[in-house]
Design brief:
CATH superfamily: P-loop containing nucleotide triphosphate hydrolases
Number of strands: 10
Oligomer: single chain
Shape: globular
Radius of gyration: 18 Å
CATH class: Alpha Beta
Largest sheet: 6 strands, mixed
Strand content: 25-35%
Length: 235
Protein backbone atom coordinates (compact mmCIF):
# COMPACT_ATOMS: atom_id res chain seq x y z
CA UNK A 1 0.00 0.00 0.00
CA UNK A 2 1.44 3.35 -1.08
CA UNK A 3 2.13 6.03 1.51
CA UNK A 4 -0.64 8.64 1.81
CA UNK A 5 0.25 12.02 0.29
CA UNK A 6 0.89 14.95 2.66
CA UNK A 7 -2.12 16.84 3.98
CA UNK A 8 -0.78 20.15 2.61
CA UNK A 9 2.04 20.71 0.13
CA UNK A 10 3.40 23.85 -1.54
CA UNK A 11 5.66 23.39 -4.57
CA UNK A 12 7.51 26.57 -5.55
CA UNK A 13 4.44 28.69 -4.68
CA UNK A 14 4.64 32.33 -5.72
CA UNK A 15 2.04 35.04 -5.19
CA UNK A 16 2.26 38.46 -6.81
CA UNK A 17 -0.23 41.25 -6.17
CA UNK A 18 -0.54 44.09 -8.67
CA UNK A 19 1.49 44.47 -11.87
CA UNK A 20 4.34 46.47 -13.35
CA UNK A 21 6.15 48.77 -10.93
CA UNK A 22 3.32 48.36 -8.41
CA UNK A 23 3.80 44.56 -8.25
CA UNK A 24 4.43 43.09 -4.80
CA UNK A 25 5.71 39.53 -4.45
CA UNK A 26 4.08 38.22 -1.27
CA UNK A 27 5.45 34.68 -1.72
CA UNK A 28 8.70 34.12 -3.58
CA UNK A 29 8.80 30.37 -4.28
CA UNK A 30 7.76 28.52 -1.13
CA UNK A 31 8.19 24.76 -0.70
CA UNK A 32 6.36 23.33 2.28
CA UNK A 33 4.92 20.02 3.52
CA UNK A 34 2.47 19.61 6.43
CA UNK A 35 1.47 16.07 7.39
CA UNK A 36 -1.82 14.78 8.75
CA UNK A 37 -2.07 15.19 12.53
CA UNK A 38 0.51 17.99 12.87
CA UNK A 39 0.04 21.18 14.89
CA UNK A 40 1.97 23.88 13.04
CA UNK A 41 2.46 27.52 14.05
CA UNK A 42 3.27 29.98 11.26
CA UNK A 43 5.08 33.14 12.35
CA UNK A 44 6.84 36.10 10.80
CA UNK A 45 6.78 39.90 10.73
CA UNK A 46 4.07 41.89 8.99
CA UNK A 47 4.44 41.51 5.22
CA UNK A 48 6.45 38.28 5.52
CA UNK A 49 3.93 36.22 3.53
CA UNK A 50 2.46 34.17 6.39
CA UNK A 51 -1.12 35.43 5.93
CA UNK A 52 -0.90 34.97 2.15
CA UNK A 53 0.25 31.38 2.69
CA UNK A 54 -2.65 30.79 5.10
CA UNK A 55 -5.15 32.25 2.61
CA UNK A 56 -3.88 29.90 -0.10
CA UNK A 57 -4.12 26.90 2.26
CA UNK A 58 -7.70 27.96 3.08
CA UNK A 59 -8.64 28.28 -0.62
CA UNK A 60 -9.35 31.98 -0.05
CA UNK A 61 -6.61 32.90 -2.56
CA UNK A 62 -4.71 31.15 -5.37
CA UNK A 63 -1.00 31.13 -6.24
CA UNK A 64 0.30 33.16 -9.18
CA UNK A 65 2.51 30.18 -10.01
CA UNK A 66 3.58 26.90 -8.45
CA UNK A 67 1.32 24.23 -6.99
CA UNK A 68 -0.75 23.87 -3.84
CA UNK A 69 -1.74 20.26 -3.22
CA UNK A 70 -4.30 19.15 -0.63
CA UNK A 71 -4.08 15.40 0.06
CA UNK A 72 -2.22 15.02 -3.22
CA UNK A 73 -4.83 16.89 -5.31
CA UNK A 74 -3.68 20.03 -7.14
CA UNK A 75 -6.07 22.72 -5.87
CA UNK A 76 -5.22 24.94 -8.85
CA UNK A 77 -6.82 22.39 -11.18
CA UNK A 78 -10.15 22.64 -9.34
CA UNK A 79 -12.96 24.93 -10.46
CA UNK A 80 -14.40 27.59 -8.17
CA UNK A 81 -17.27 25.36 -7.03
CA UNK A 82 -14.89 22.47 -6.28
CA UNK A 83 -12.67 24.79 -4.22
CA UNK A 84 -15.73 25.98 -2.30
CA UNK A 85 -16.67 22.36 -1.56
CA UNK A 86 -13.10 21.59 -0.45
CA UNK A 87 -13.22 24.57 1.91
CA UNK A 88 -16.67 23.64 3.21
CA UNK A 89 -16.02 19.91 3.70
CA UNK A 90 -12.36 19.64 4.72
CA UNK A 91 -11.37 22.94 6.36
CA UNK A 92 -12.48 24.60 9.59
CA UNK A 93 -11.69 28.28 10.21
CA UNK A 94 -11.13 30.18 13.46
CA UNK A 95 -10.44 33.92 13.32
CA UNK A 96 -9.23 36.57 15.74
CA UNK A 97 -12.61 38.32 15.74
CA UNK A 98 -14.82 35.25 16.52
CA UNK A 99 -17.24 36.22 13.66
CA UNK A 100 -20.33 35.08 15.55
CA UNK A 101 -23.84 36.25 14.70
CA UNK A 102 -24.67 38.59 17.62
CA UNK A 103 -28.36 37.95 18.36
CA UNK A 104 -28.08 34.21 17.77
CA UNK A 105 -27.57 31.42 20.31
CA UNK A 106 -24.34 29.48 20.59
CA UNK A 107 -26.15 26.41 19.19
CA UNK A 108 -27.46 28.32 16.17
CA UNK A 109 -24.01 29.79 15.47
CA UNK A 110 -22.47 26.31 15.48
CA UNK A 111 -25.28 24.93 13.29
CA UNK A 112 -24.59 27.44 10.52
CA UNK A 113 -22.06 25.42 8.43
CA UNK A 114 -24.44 22.44 8.55
CA UNK A 115 -27.27 24.65 7.32
CA UNK A 116 -25.21 25.40 4.19
CA UNK A 117 -24.72 21.66 3.73
CA UNK A 118 -28.45 20.98 3.93
CA UNK A 119 -28.16 18.78 7.05
CA UNK A 120 -31.64 17.98 8.48
CA UNK A 121 -32.60 20.11 11.54
CA UNK A 122 -32.56 17.33 14.18
CA UNK A 123 -29.18 16.03 13.05
CA UNK A 124 -27.88 19.61 12.84
CA UNK A 125 -28.86 20.36 16.44
CA UNK A 126 -27.38 17.10 17.74
CA UNK A 127 -24.05 17.67 15.95
CA UNK A 128 -23.89 21.30 17.14
CA UNK A 129 -24.62 20.31 20.76
CA UNK A 130 -21.90 17.64 20.56
CA UNK A 131 -19.39 20.16 19.15
CA UNK A 132 -20.17 22.61 21.97
CA UNK A 133 -19.67 19.81 24.53
CA UNK A 134 -16.27 19.01 22.95
CA UNK A 135 -15.09 22.58 23.63
CA UNK A 136 -16.43 22.64 27.20
CA UNK A 137 -19.66 24.56 26.62
CA UNK A 138 -22.31 21.96 27.42
CA UNK A 139 -25.21 23.80 29.06
CA UNK A 140 -24.49 27.08 27.24
CA UNK A 141 -26.30 26.15 24.01
CA UNK A 142 -29.06 28.77 24.46
CA UNK A 143 -26.78 31.67 25.42
CA UNK A 144 -26.38 34.47 22.89
CA UNK A 145 -22.95 35.91 22.04
CA UNK A 146 -23.64 38.91 24.31
CA UNK A 147 -24.11 36.53 27.26
CA UNK A 148 -20.72 34.84 26.75
CA UNK A 149 -17.21 35.97 27.68
CA UNK A 150 -14.56 36.48 24.99
CA UNK A 151 -13.06 33.08 25.73
CA UNK A 152 -16.45 31.40 25.55
CA UNK A 153 -17.19 33.16 22.25
CA UNK A 154 -13.92 31.81 20.81
CA UNK A 155 -14.89 28.34 22.04
CA UNK A 156 -18.17 28.69 20.13
CA UNK A 157 -16.16 29.72 17.05
CA UNK A 158 -13.96 26.62 17.47
CA UNK A 159 -17.04 24.41 17.86
CA UNK A 160 -18.45 25.91 14.65
CA UNK A 161 -15.18 25.10 12.87
CA UNK A 162 -15.26 21.51 14.18
CA UNK A 163 -18.93 20.68 13.60
CA UNK A 164 -18.41 19.60 9.98
CA UNK A 165 -15.62 17.18 10.94
CA UNK A 166 -12.84 18.98 9.02
CA UNK A 167 -9.45 17.45 8.27
CA UNK A 168 -7.64 20.60 9.36
CA UNK A 169 -8.37 23.55 11.63
CA UNK A 170 -7.00 26.84 10.28
CA UNK A 171 -6.58 29.38 13.07
CA UNK A 172 -5.65 32.99 12.25
CA UNK A 173 -4.43 34.80 15.40
CA UNK A 174 -7.02 32.86 17.48
CA UNK A 175 -5.97 34.56 20.75
CA UNK A 176 -5.51 38.07 19.34
CA UNK A 177 -8.58 39.51 21.11
CA UNK A 178 -8.15 37.66 24.40
CA UNK A 179 -6.35 38.37 27.66
CA UNK A 180 -3.34 36.24 28.60
CA UNK A 181 -5.15 33.79 30.92
CA UNK A 182 -7.96 33.21 28.42
CA UNK A 183 -5.43 32.88 25.57
CA UNK A 184 -3.73 30.03 27.41
CA UNK A 185 -7.09 28.33 28.06
CA UNK A 186 -7.96 28.51 24.35
CA UNK A 187 -4.53 27.20 23.35
CA UNK A 188 -4.85 24.31 25.83
CA UNK A 189 -8.16 23.46 24.15
CA UNK A 190 -6.68 23.62 20.62
CA UNK A 191 -3.68 21.53 21.68
CA UNK A 192 -5.94 18.90 23.26
CA UNK A 193 -8.09 18.73 20.08
CA UNK A 194 -4.89 18.04 18.14
CA UNK A 195 -3.43 15.62 20.68
CA UNK A 196 -6.52 13.67 21.72
CA UNK A 197 -8.77 13.89 18.66
CA UNK A 198 -6.08 13.93 15.98
CA UNK A 199 -7.26 17.17 14.36
CA UNK A 200 -4.53 18.80 12.25
CA UNK A 201 -3.99 22.46 13.14
CA UNK A 202 -2.32 25.25 11.13
CA UNK A 203 -2.16 28.49 13.12
CA UNK A 204 -0.87 31.96 12.28
CA UNK A 205 0.33 33.88 15.34
CA UNK A 206 2.81 36.62 16.22
CA UNK A 207 3.02 35.54 19.87
CA UNK A 208 5.90 33.17 20.77
CA UNK A 209 4.16 31.86 23.89
CA UNK A 210 1.12 30.91 21.77
CA UNK A 211 3.33 29.33 19.09
CA UNK A 212 4.96 27.21 21.81
CA UNK A 213 1.76 25.12 22.02
CA UNK A 214 2.41 23.85 18.48
CA UNK A 215 4.70 20.93 17.74
CA UNK A 216 6.36 22.71 14.82
CA UNK A 217 7.11 26.34 14.04
CA UNK A 218 7.54 27.78 10.53
CA UNK A 219 8.88 31.33 10.27
CA UNK A 220 8.31 33.39 7.12
CA UNK A 221 10.42 36.38 6.08
CA UNK A 222 10.31 38.35 2.82
CA UNK A 223 8.05 35.82 1.12
CA UNK A 224 10.17 32.77 1.94
CA UNK A 225 10.42 30.19 4.72
CA UNK A 226 13.27 31.42 6.94
CA UNK A 227 13.16 28.51 9.38
CA UNK A 228 11.13 25.37 9.95
CA UNK A 229 11.55 23.06 12.91
CA UNK A 230 10.17 21.52 16.05
CA UNK A 231 9.23 23.86 18.88
CA UNK A 232 11.24 23.58 22.08
CA UNK A 233 8.32 21.79 23.79
CA UNK A 234 8.15 19.18 21.02
CA UNK A 235 11.88 18.68 20.60
Amino acid sequence: MADAPPLIEFRDVRKIYGSGEAAVEALSGVDLVIEEGEFVAIMGPSGSGKSTAMNIVGCLDTPTSGQYLFKGISVGSLGRRQRTLLRRNFLGFVFQGFNLLPRTTALENVELPLLYRGTPPDERRALAADALARVGLAGRERHSSAELSGGQQQRVAIARALVTGPDVLLADEPTGNLDTKTSYEIMELVASLNREQGISVVMVTHEPDVAAYAGRKIVFRDGLVESDGLTRDAA
